[in-house]
What does this fold into?
Amino acid sequence: MAENKVKKVAVNTKINGEEMDILVDPYVSLLETLREVVGITGTKEGCNDGNCGACTVNLDGRIVDSCLVLGVEVEGKNIETVEGMATPDGLHPLQQAFLEEAALQCGICTPGFLVSAKALLDNEPDPSEERIRHWLAGNLCRCTGYDKIVKAVSKASKESK
Amino acid sequence: MIKIFLPYKIRETLGVPTEIEADGSNLRNLIDHIEDAYPGVKEYLVDEGKLKPGMSAVIDGKTTRLGLIHKLDNVSEIHFLPSIAGGSE
Amino acid sequence: MVSTSENKNYKVIGTRPIRHDGYDKVTGRAQYGADIKLPGMLIGAVLRSPYAHAKIKSIDTSEAEKMDGVFAVMTSKDLPRLGDVVRGNSEESGSEKHLSENVMAFDKVLYKGHVVAGVAAKDQNTAFEAVKKIKVDYEVLKPVINVDQAMAKDAPILHEDYTGDHLGKKVKNSNVAAHARHEVGDIDDGFKKSDLVVEKEVDMQTVHQGYIEPHSGTAVWDEEDRVKVWTSTQGSFSVRDSVSKVLDLDVSRVKVTPMEIGGGFGGKIPIYLEPIAAVLSKKTRRPVKAMMSRTDVFDATGPGPGGKVKVKIGIDSEGKILAAYADIRLEAGAYPEAFIEAAAKCVFSCYDVPSMKIDAYDVLVNKPSSAPYRAPASPQVAFATETVVDEICEIKGYDPIDFRLMNVAEKGTRTALGPKYRTIGLKECLEAAKNSNHWKSTLDSNPSPGKKRGRGIASGYWFNIGFKSSVNLSLNPDGKVALTEGSTDIGGSRASIAMQAAEVLGIAAEDVRPSVVDTDSIGITDVTGGSRTTYATGYAAYNAAHKLIEEIIEKAAIKWDISEDQIEYSDGIVKSKTDSELKMTLKEIADDPPGGPIVSSASVDLEEAGGGFAVHIADLEIDEETGKTDVINYTAIQDVGKAIHPSYVEGQMQGGAAQGIGWALNEEYFMNEDGVMLNSSYLDYRMPIALDLPMIDTIMVEVPSEEHPYGVRGVGEPPIVPPVPAIGNAINDALGLRLLSTPMKPSRITEALKRKK
It folds into this structure.
């Protein structure tokens, strides 16, 4: 309705190294902003209430559920999504390890796991199994039972050393 | 002769013994022979010239996918059973 | 790995190549249901009933229609009213009327979350606002939310117009949609002769498949009355069938393009939003996409049936089972089909029993219409049977594996439904369990203070369906092969299907490129479910590859002007048997072959693959004060027939075990007496997270199926069957407590410990 019309907000942000200006409704989540405004759909919605981790992105070095962050909050920030992990030279070691270890079945949770695991390995190059399980506790997977995901993260940590 | 086992509810409704015997060159033929001996059975098994939806025929441990045209060579037993809904990964 | 087959020299089968769709899935490129965006697309939203049971007196959509940005509003008046026609002999049963009513309520809402109206708007926010403006006048009725309430005298009736089938009698005004019975031998005599009879009743709560991707549906209805649907589904052809029925269109007017699917486990076989998106598109002539929230998914889709199962087993003084009886009451939800025939087939499937009787009840309750959930109804009945067996072993001091081996079902054993087993591998699984490091290890029974440890074992079964699949192959000019198929890929089936074609052709797995295509581009293919995909679609790929070789030989014969019987093919080379000069690679023969390109196609309609059995061993550590249970060791043993891609077979075993562990310890629909689910979020439903589980060890046993050229059995479903009883039995081992209800959550454990004292 016209009288309730809320104005869009201009936001300047950096996504996977690319600086961009976007217009966002102030009530829209970062998840919806990425998917609908920016148009990159690798970040997935599983629950939209911060419990599944499928929408995990890296915001200024910290992993967040993008469904719990507003699009307007990312002004001046640096966002990394799954689309930013591989380079023109090839896959990130985590992506390669996920493929080799068969750490995905349906694959819907995979982007969130990869972004979470990358943040772990960026700070701790050689995490224990227990540490990996703690770190990934915010990411739900219903297909694998986590076994092969934990092994893939462990493998990537050893190979990137 | 082939041993035939009908579903409980058909046996109960029509008073058919647990195990009966019949012969037939194919399933259609066999059901006709059962019908001769136990009138009323066919209506439970056949609909519009096909095995009735929801009904399956297990021929020596294998559920037929051919239905009434399934040829019966060297068959020892057939179980007519309600077909089963399936699940998944 | 334990293998009873002589190890054939496979080149591709049994290897672990990177799956063909893997790169798209680790980079975020893969397009799932909600990822589709079409030009001019509108967003659909639905209004759901807040009541679990109510009559719809009237619906007023006028305020919603007036809103800016709203393009269309629909109710069930916009859907054809369908008669009570029973659907075909496929994996879904039920009537067209029920199929349609479940998409959108006509006269009555039967569960909280039942859809009553739909809106198409310019964006999601507008659609949600518009939905709130729809006014529905309900006459609220009392709901029934479990089998006891539904079967009670004077219970409120869900379907006044429905005729139930009670052992062949037509019964009106009952919530029991069906009562079925199976009998083998004389159980009265069997129990009379028994030395020991043990009986238990278990109570399983309703659970959800829990796939991470919520449902969505996108559709375009064009001016020629053709409907295009994009959706995340386990079966594009079953969506085509269902959508065409609900919309009363010929199937050829509906084209379904399957998107990548973010988990299903059976729950993505039914349709929900697709026909609504289609009708909204008809009204607007624009593409419409509708999506569910997580709460919608819990409230209105899935669930795996809860219910009560009573099992009684009698043994003689030697420990041989003489008689077994089961009373199975499962929740169908709002519409019939609680998989009671599957339950009957599975309940005593692991044992050779001379006399058996099963009564099974398909019970209507005010919950969402039950969908298949991984080996539907088998975990429910296994909990009862495997608990009784464990109790027998405890009373008599039998080793639980030896007792199972003494009574093991094998080839020729008569099953409860009557037919005899063909080749199965339960015995081999039990022997593998007995020889496993896990079973041979001793469990430290004195862990940290205040904690107790226990070990449990259980077995389980699923029968693996066959049905229809189609595959097309095309030899490209570079000598590689394009494979098109209709089986949507939930967990690596592109790879396991392509590998079977590659094996036949003697080329690398990577050189067969599989694509999952829409319903206009491939022959009919039944759902990815029932553990049928690698078996049936793989079989079609096997046949298509053999036909491709015939084509290759035919073309080579024309090219060389010799007869076909002088030509042989192996490992990517076609050559003359007599003239060593005549030889071509696939690339060479594919370069301008005489008479046109080299293509082939094959379809199958298969019988069951022969059953799959699993045996699981669980070690638990339980905190006696808090009741918290940790799974500390877990081993899953399974007869997989032949593992095509062992990594993804292990993945199925581990994933099934994890779901079963969640079912055993945490998961349930926690409902109030009004039939409202109070824990309809991931936070409160609480599926297992990485921290809850140990590594899940797998032992693949290979007893090849007689029905498949490589011996494939379905592997997806058996692993969810043993976990619930294995964990129940381990709790009993630790605490001396038989918990007979799921979930065996901390409060149940502490209460039971209190009662015991």
About this structure: Chain B touches chain C through 31 residues (CB under 8 Å). The domain at 2-82 of chain B is CATH 3.10.20.30 (Ubiquitin-like (UB roll)).
